[in-house]
Amino acid sequence: RNFYNGKDEL
Amino acid sequence: MNIFRLAGDMTHLASVLVLLLKIHTIKSCAGVSLKTQELYALVFATRYLDIVTDFISVYNTVMKLIFLGSSFSIVWYIRHHRVVRRSYDKDQDTFRHYLLMIPCMLLALFVHEKFTFKEVMWTFSLYLEAVAILPQLVLLQRTRNIDNLTGQYVFLLGAYRGLYIFNWIYRYFTEPHFVHWITWIAGVVQTLLYADFFYYYFESWKNNVRLQLPA
């Protein structure tokens, strides 16, 4: 699972 | 990382540098809202709780440290620096920030993806960031002559938010994702708050006159 959830943004 | 995201982060970084440049070299914070800066410090402190629990990338960690460090040092400068603090427009910067903090906290307690401490804090930071610029915009409206650096600071912050929306649109089409409409709505609201400012910013630029917002 490598869903984009925005937690890798600043 | 796509080009919109990188451009957005760089614009955000540039906005902070412009503000630090003004405060550090000109030793003035005239026209800068301490309320907005305190809200940003709180935004980063509550959003980056994961800095100690999750590792994403060196870039991510370094940028988080920069935003945390710069926002707290800007607040420190305005409140405590012997020269800078004298230029603070205390009587003009009257927006009561708890009027933004309390509703954002209540909203985060009720509207979130998961009811965990970190998740609620993260959601709170999104809501708060969306409205944190308001005291600054109110202060700009009250300031007769907005100096170039302050105008550029707000412009760069607005550009950063706009670029993040392009980044989300790009990611929507290129990456697997689940719905996180909270991020979308908070981000769009935040960008819309700059619409009025952008209009006057471009008008003043086009007509080559000093930026001034109508009361």
From TrEMBL, chain B:
Membrane topology type: Multi-pass membrane protein
Keywords for the protein's UniProt record, in alphabetical order: Endoplasmic reticulum, ER-Golgi transport, Membrane, Protein transport, Receptor, Signal, Transmembrane, Transmembrane helix, Transport
Compartments, record wording: Endoplasmic reticulum membrane
GO cellular component: cis-Golgi network; endoplasmic reticulum; endoplasmic reticulum membrane
InterPro entries: ER_ret_rcpt
Protein family per UniProt: Belongs to the ERD2 family.
Residue spans crossing the bilayer: 55-78, 98-115, 121-140, 152-170, 182-202
BP-aspect Gene Ontology terms: protein retention in ER lumen; protein transport; vesicle-mediated transport
Signal sequence annotation: 1-31
Pfam families: ER_lumen_recept
GO molecular function: ER retention sequence binding
PROSITE patterns, sorted: ER_LUMEN_RECEPTOR_1, ER_LUMEN_RECEPTOR_2
Protein name, as recorded: ER lumen protein-retaining receptor
